[in-house]
Amino acid sequence: MASNEVLQAFVQAATQGSFSAAARKLGKSQSTVSAAVASLEIDLDVELFDRSSRKPTLTPAGHVLLQRAEQVLEASSRLELAASQLSRGLEPRLTIAMSDTYQSDRFEIALKAFEQRYPDLELECLIAECEDLIALVQSGRAQIAFIEKQDVYPPDLTGAPVEERTEIALFVAPKHPLASLKNISADTLQQHRELRLASIINPTETRPTGRVWSAPSYLMLMEMAQLGFGWAPIPRWLVERFGGGHLVELKARSWPRSVAVDALWSRHHPPGPAGSWLLGKMLEG
After folding, report:
1. Are the beta carbons of 137 and 109 closer than 8 angstroms?
2. Residue 173 and residue 225 in contact, taking contact as beta carbons nearer than 8 Å
3. What DSSP assignment string belongs to 118-171?
4. pLDDT band at 5, cuts 50/70/90?
């Protein structure tokens, strides 16, 4: 197996156009670079350069192997970077749990920068709602959660506001009896089935009286509403992106509602360097 030093000599000789230029680039003597390339040719049993003219040029085989050498050096560099980061305490894996309550432009921008900064870190994104998000962070299954703002969090968790908001409105199928009404009151809504979000952890907690169907995700609620089973509070962005024009927004009193979003993490097991960096990007004012 050729060493990185030998591969560097080959790559620089090819890209710089001469052994002397490669030597200057690498801070080595020309004879050292020439010997490294010659040893690589012997090891590979392939002629990499045509030396019949004053200036060596890559052979067809040299062109192919140059790409492979560059890939090996890039992989080696990434390996060294990952090992260095891990030795300094970088977590090898980061799990983020998010609510479908909002679609975050900030999160998408932060992820692009995160991918460039931590290219080898394993990232997992989970979708959950309400108490399920809290349980994921408390159990250590997720290091960070983004959740619809709560009045109170468990004492072992820390919450901080994200400078983004979303809107939740009421939706029904076009043929639902409520679809043609205006200025709909709470009493009128109670006469029809509500499609309500319920967590897996506490499925019956804070359930209202009356006819209710529940599901643990907004996408499931949206599908139920599209089928005409009832009315549902659903994030507007979700309906705009995935509703397919099969839902009607109700003109109801006190709706739509603006929803604030918090970032959530554990006091006892705070995010590592990568998670803290991403959290900082999300909490920037």
Report:
1. no
2. yes
3. STTSEEEEEE--HHHHHHHHHTTS-SEEEEE--S---TTEEEEEEEEEEEEEEE
4. confident
Q: Kindly report the average pLDDT of the chain as a whole number.
A: 85
Q: Which amino acid is at 157?
A: L
- Asked if 137 and 269 count as a contact pair (C-beta separation under 8 A), the reply is no
How far, in Å, CA of 159 to CA of 134, rounded? Answer: 11
0.70 exceeded by pTM? no
Note whether 139 and 212 are within 8 A (CB). no
Torsion-angle region of 134 (φ positive above 0: left; ψ -120 to 50: alpha; else: beta): alpha
Topology adopted by domain 165-258: D-Maltodextrin-Binding Protein; domain 2 (3.40.190)
Q: Which amino acid is at 55?
A: K
Architecture per CATH, 93-163+260-283: 3-Layer(aba) Sandwich (3.40)
Q: Which of 7-16, 154-163, 219-228, 240-249 has the highest mean pLDDT?
A: 219-228
